[in-house]
Every structure is written in C-alpha cells, then in structure tokens.
Amino acid sequence: MNYYIFDRTLDGLLTAVFDCFALRQHPVTLLTRGSQLPLFAGEPHTVTTNGEKASRVWKGLEQRLSAGGLRIITLSWLSEEETLYQPLFSYICKVFRQPEGAASIERNASDEDVLHVRNTCRRVLHESQRMKQFIRFQKAKDGTYLGVVSPDHNVLPLIIDHFEDRFGDQPWLIYDAHRHYGYYHTPDEPIVRITFEDETTLPFDLDSGKLNADTLSSDDELFQQLWRTYFKAICIRERTNPKKQLSDMPRRYWKYMTEKN
Amino acid sequence: MLTEKTMERLRILAESAKYDVSCSSSGTVRSGKKGMVGNTVGGVGICHSFADDGRCISLLKVMLTNHCKYDCAYCINRRSNDIPRATLSVSEIEEIVMEFYRRNYIEGLFLSSGVVRTPDYTMERLTAIVRDLRTIHRFNGYIHLKTIPGATKELLTEAGRYADRMSVNIETPKEESLKALAPEKDHQSVFLPMSQIQQGVLENKEDRKKFRHAPRFVPAGQSTQMIVGATQETDRDILTMSATMYQQPSMRRVYYSGYISVNTYDPRLPVLKQPPLVRENRLYQADWLMRFYHFSVDEIVDDAHSHLDLEIDPKLAWALRHPEAFPVDINTADYERILRVPGIGVKSAMLIVNSRRFNRVTSYHLKKMGVVMKKAKYFITCGELTSSFSQPIVGINELHPERLRPLLLSKTQQKRAAEERQLSFEFLP
C-alpha cells in the first residue's frame, strides 16, 4: 500500500491522482497533512499541489465524464467531509483506468466509491434545498434584508442564484456564521462575496442571527410576530406529529428561524 | 397600516383555512422578471416551514373571510357554527403577502373564501386580490386560488390569468353523500368549474402554439380534495374517483383529508376520537402507486378488497395477492417489474437498471443503494439469492403469502391500525 499526504484542497487531490499515475503506484491510501500514519507504513509520498497537473487531470475528466458527472464531483466537494477524500480519489482513478469506449462508470451505483460520491452529492443538494426553505430575512433600517445561516456543508454558492432571481430588486445579505463569509446583493449590481475583518462590531448577533434592535427596521418586529401567530394558527392540534416535523425540519436549523424563536 | 387587530384577524382566518390540505407550490417554473418580485421554482416546490402537526407550510394559506352563507356539515365555517368571524381587507392581505414573501417566509398565497352574498360577488373579490398582486404589487410568486362553485365563467377566466393553480374540492366521491352533508352543493357545481378550468388550459395550450408569448392560463393546473372518513364511501370509491380525475390532463393532484370531528353535534357525521390518519396515509400511498408506479386503480382495490389494508401498505398488499408475479430477477427484469417489488422505490429502481450494465447486482449492492431488504428479499432473486445456491431461498412462493404476511408486519403499524379501527364509526340514522 502506498500512502499519499495531501493538503485538503481539490487541486491537491487532483494532483495526487496525477502523481499516482505518473509514479505507477496503485493502490493508494490518501492521508491528510498532520494525520497519524498507520502502523508499518513505508515512507509516505507528500503531494505538492500543482495547478497545472490538477488542471490536466480535470481536463481528462471532462473528456471522460458527462456534464452531470463533473457536477457530482464539484458538488460533493462542497460537503467538506473528510470521509469523502478516499472514495472520491478512488472514483477518479477508476474513471481513468476504464478502457476506451466502455460505458461511463459514473452511473454504476453498485460501485462503492461511485455510490459514496453520489450520496454525498445528494446530501449537499438536499441541504442547499433546505437553505432555500429555511433562510429567514430580517429587514434593517436601510432596507437591507439579512439572513444568517450555518449549514453543515458549504452550500451558499449553490443558492445565491436562486435568491438573486427571486429577490433581484431588494438588497440582501446572506451570511454563513460558521464559515465566516457571505454574499451581498444590491439591485442591478453583481453579487459580491464578503468577509468581515472584525466580527465583534457587526450589527447582528452571530449566535442567534438577530439584528440589533437599533438597526432593525421599525415594522419588522410586527411582521415577525404576525408570522409566529400564523405558524401557531395553521397547525391542526388533533394531528400533532412532532416526529414528522423534526424529520422535515431538523432542530439544528431552528436557531435562526423566526417562528421557532 | 397593520395593527394588532390584523393579527387577530389573520389568526382567525388561518384557523379557518387550515383544513384545506393542499399546500404545494409545484408545477410551474417561472424565473424572476425585471421590475417584479419573486419567481416560482417548479419541481416539488419549496416548503418554508413545518407546523407542529408535521404539515408543510409553503403558501400563506388564508381565507378572505370566514363568513359563509352555506351550511355544509363537515365544514368548520358553516353558517350555524358559533365561531369568531373575521374578514381581512384587500390591502391587508396584499401587504402581508408581500412582506412575508420578501422575508422568505412563504412561497406565495393560497387564497380561499367563504361564500358571502353570491358566488359571483365572492369570486369577484378574490379575483381583485390576485389581479392587484400581479399588476400593482408586481408579485411574481406562486398563487393558488380556490374557485367558488357557481361563479360565472368570465370571472374564472380572468382569475385564471393571474393564478398559478386553481382548485375546487369534490369533498365526497358519491353525489348523494355530498348532497346529504351539503344541501346547497351537488357534483354539477363542482364539475362545471373544473371543466371550465380544463377548457381554459387546453385553449391556452393551443394559443401558445401560435403565439409564443400568449399569457399563460393556470400554468400549474388544478387540484382537488376529498374528505376521508366522514361518509361511508369505501377506499375503492375514493380511488376510482381520483383515477378518473387524473385522466383529465390539467388535474395534477388529488388530496385526501382525514376527517377531523369539528362539528360533533351534527347527527349526519360520525364521532371520531381521532382523525383516520392511517387510512389517509394508505390512500396517499395508493395515489403514489397510480402516479409513479404504473399501477391501475383496479390492481390496488377490487370487489374483494374495497378497503385498503390498514396494516400493510398497498404495494405490499398487491404483492401478497399476486405471488405469481414473483420472484423478480433484479439483473434481467424490466424496470416496470422491478418497480413492483415491495421495498424498491423509483430511485432505487433507476439505480438498479443503470448499475446492472456494469456487473451483476447482488443483495449487498441493493442494500447499499437503499433498498428495504427486509421486505424486498422475499420477492427477488439476485446474485447469491438464487435457487442454485446451497442455501435454498425462502421467497413468497416457498413461504406462501399467508405465512409471509405476519413476517412483514411491523408492531407499531399494527398498533396504529388497531387503534384506528377501534374508533367508533357510528352513523346514526
């Protein structure tokens, strides 16, 4: 067994694929920098991330996979899960080891690596759908709408198109409290990705996602109250089903949701 | 300007509207437009929240007024009920919709109303709201509009230009029970607006072939709803009615609403301790079988089985009645036959037919793909689960359905079904 150490970037992983073919070393176990080496392991190979090698591998993938297959790879990468590294690496190697003209392996769900990557991609898409559902905006005095989230996966890049299309005429800021960045939209201008140098001076609270009272628009509290009233009124008491509610709206999303606070 | 009173009115009218099941914001894709607010996403729509009863909140479901001149036995808003009554003003509804939408609380509006004065008068006011939303407030989100039976066709046609989906509820599959419960209504009053919407949709389709930018008419089609458990109709009556409904090209969804005893004093209605939730669930499962699993209604219910089995789901029930259709060989059978195996859904069936081109699919793979092997293993052969293997397989044909059935029953489902059957279904003469 050969051990490769890489730097947790997608480029690094693609470079590792390049190296393992260049050095003719199979199979390869992928480790991350700083992780414990297994017992009796030989000298590991440290992958030096190289943009050129990575883009060569990516070009190769473009020739061998459909657009949907490539999308599955990029989407699954947004999961930021360490358990994805090895299956994704093996999957990409398998793509290159396929004989010419064979049916593309991307649709083979009976292959464990392919299935793992596909399932990871599905979870990322599921969470991006949940963000579209559960983001709640508050209106600030200057008319900006603020929504704070902290998703498990890095899904913000996947949802801003939806919000730009829907709320194109209002300025909004969606901020990822966990990853410390956000997207800011103003009408008729391109979306900008923003980070704050000093998060302590922000006009909103990162833990609760609430705007400070002096920046909150004057009628916002009324609409929040209306929404809570509506949320209570629409429930049919005879059918109370907390299990179903929790499976569709897990508790970890509640902290930023108006109706649950 | 909105006040505390608005909040009270919204509460009353939401509570009046909540027994309408339909909530989906699906069926139409319309991207955002310059100068307008919102879009619709299509697909399965977006559910923005889930209430404590587990039902999704996608649209702001509210009535314009809960004053009603009708006296339908099953309805909370019937004339003879002593409940708080309220009416939201047109501007109040519009402001709430726009402000909720901008905060990403809702996907759009689901508007219905009690009938005041005449059907035309009521429909006119509903139409005015959707027209204002679209033309003055430039609202581009989803609008589901309830049709008032008895309104003229012109009003319906105008409303249909602004609404995404329209619906009229059939309430009961048999006309005589509808007449018994709702003396002012009959099936004619339901089917007429339904066919008018249908006609509008079809005409619009023709128009759009000639003029690409012709305004769309009810692009998300129509839906309807039936009450379950308030009358003596069997599941067969209900499902046959839904199958007929789905034959109309514009009918997208039939909803089933487990009857909740809201008017306990009415002798025409049964007194239920709890709504028939299991039965409602089974009906939805049967509905899914018809829409996504290529089942016809006669396969799900027939003369001998006019009610769905409460303890097991309708697909499993079908499989137990038809042992001759099994075992299905996962590696060679058609997609349609794989779809009929209990424990295999649309997604896993697709994964199976895609994967078996590469290698033989085994039960290990099936498990990984998400197939419920606890059920499926009795109905399939695959890889090692063949009769040539040293260990003889135990499938439905070896075990016989009557001995297999107890193996597949889950304790909790049995308990729920038993609880529901115990409920007093007393129809007083």
Strand-residue proportion of chain A: 5-15%
Secondary structure: number of strands of chain B: 12
Oligomer: heterodimer
Largest sheet of chain A: 5 strands, mixed
- Based on Cα principal axes, name the global outline of chain B: globular
For the sheet with most strands of chain B, the description reads: 6 strands, parallel
Task: Provide a descriptive summary of the structure in words.
The complex is a heterodimer of chains A (261) and B (429). By secondary structure, chain A is of the alpha/beta class. Chain A contains eight helices and eight strands, in the order βαββααααββαβββαα. In chain A, a hairpin with a 6-residue loop joins β7 and β8. In chain A, α1 (10-22) crosses α4 (85-97). The termini of chain A are far apart. The relative contact order of chain A is 0.09. The model of chain A has no long low-confidence stretch (mean pLDDT 91). By secondary structure, chain B is α/β, with parallel strands linked by helices. Chain B contains 17 helices and twelve strands. Chain B has helices spanning 4-17, 90-102, 119-135, 153-162, 175-181, 187-210, 235-247, 277-292, 297-300, 314-321, 335-339, 346-355, 363-369, 373-376, 396-399, 401-408, 411-422, and strands at 29-30, 40-41, 49-50, 56-57, 59-63, 108-112, 142-146, 165-167, 222-228, 251-258, 328-329, 380-381. In chain B, strands 5-6-7-8-9-10 form a six-stranded parallel sheet. Chain B is globular, with a radius of gyration of 24 Å. At the A-B interface, α5, β4, α6, α7 and α8 of A face α1, β3, β4, β5 and α2 of B.
